[in-house]
Design brief:
13 helices; 2 strands; mainly alpha; 376 residues; two-stranded antiparallel ribbon
């Protein structure tokens, strides 16, 4: 029997060797594929986990931004009431002063300036904080990932140190919103005031205006504020509004802290000057002034009488003197506490969310982490 087996082996030696090699090779290939598959699955799981963490941090960052904007609304209202105190002028008019006509003209100018400025201020404040908090949020996430991998202070592939912005620098950076309230808002108000004066000084208190007249007036004021004197021309990339947000010239580069702070300012400035930012800002302003038109339309509808004849809304007229108190009161509606229809719409704009996501993605990137492990 053994001889038969041996003879069989000799006759089929090559086939048996090939079969053995294939069996061993198949086992090796199976193990290799299994190992590679496990590594792939582990990598996919890690990437999914990191993406989930990043998404959670991003969502939390957006909620922080929204709450910050809403918390600043009372400060914004108080500052505008201080700069454009229509209530004080109204009280003076009640005493029937000798300069009554002059006070009415001041009230007209201040009321329209306040209504228009609050839209600009809310839009700029929302957009500025959205940019700042997503830059800081992105850096915080990237730094957290690096800390967990023990790479903070390591050399990157660009042969520069990975730096974590100190807490005091972050607070100083976010505190730039105070610059807007202390200096930028007043400069913005004066720009709007100049445009309002030029557009309304020829309109008498007795002149009757339609809703279309008011819409055209606001449109012309916007043209003066945003594009100088080119009425009907709208170039988002040339909006001269971001100059009222931050005093960039105040940056000092005399220390490491100021260097980090200056870097944050330069990155922010690049975003504020980008076409994407101005397009989103322009869209936000369009939404804001559409909200103003809605409020004005409600006023004209309340004066829409049809008892004796059919009157279309565009035919309804209201004297300027009767429009002024309503226009003045819009500060409290447009700058109200939560729920604030204007700010809520600005914060929930899809284009604003996309811009925020792009900024966060750019500054939360950790693509250089792996490379830094092999750098000198």
């Amino acid at each position: 029997m053994f001889r038969k087996i041996w003879n069989f082996i000799k006759r089929h030696k090559k086939k048996l060797i090939v079969t053995a090699v294939l069996l061993y090779g198949s086992r090796y290939v199976y193990r290799y594929i299994s190992r590679q598959l496990k590594e792939f699955q582990d990598k996919e799981a890690a990437e999914c986990l990191e993406q989930a963490r990043r998404q959670h941090h991003f969502d939390s960052n957006q909620r922080t931004c929204n709450m910050t904007v809403l918390s600043l609304l009372p400060t914004l209202r108080d500052k505008l009431r201080e700069l454009l105190n229509t209530e004080k002028i109204s009280d003076e008019l009640k005493s029937n002063p000798s300069n009554k006509l002059e006070l009415w003209e001041d009230l007209k100018m201040c009321s329209f300036t306040r209504m228009i400025t609050v839209v600009y201020a809310c839009s700029l404040m929302c957009m500025m904080l959205r940019v700042q908090l997503n830059i800081i949020g992105g850096y915080m996430y990237a730094d957290n990932v690096r800390q967990h991998k023990g790479l903070v202070g390591s050399w990157t592939k660009a042969n520069t140190m990975i730096q974590v912005a100190p807490t005091e620098v972050q607070e100083r950076y976010i505190g730039l919103v105070r610059v807007f309230f202390d200096k930028g808002l007043e400069k913005l108000m004066l720009r709007v005031k100049d445009a309002v004066t030029k557009e309304t000084q020829s309109v008498s208190l007795k002149e009757k205006l339609t809703l279309q007249n008011l819409e055209a007036m606001v449109k012309h004021v916007r043209a003066r504020v945003e594009n100088g004197h080119e009425l009907g021309v709208h170039h988002p990339a040339t909006l001269p509004l971001t100059q009222h947000l931050v005093c960039w010239n105040a940056v000092k580069q005399s220390s490491i802290e100021d260097g980090t702070y200056g870097k944050l300012l330069k990155e922010t400035e690049d975003i504020l000057e980008s076409a994407d930012f101005h397009c989103v800002l322009s869209l936000g302003l369009d939404r804001g002034f559409a909200k103003v038109q809605d409020y004005l339309a409600e006023l004209f509808k309340s004066h829409h009488k049809t008892e004796t004849s059919i009157v279309h809304l565009h035919e309804v007229t209201i004297p300027m003197a009767k429009l002024i108190p309503f226009v003045s009161s819009l500060l409290m509606k447009l700058g109200s506490d939560a729920p604030n229809p204007l700010v809520q719409e600005l914060l929930l704009m899809e284009q604003s969310k996309t811009l925020a996501a792009n900024i966060y993605e750019a500054f939360s990137s950790t693509d250089d982490v792996e490379d830094s492990q092999f750098s000198p």
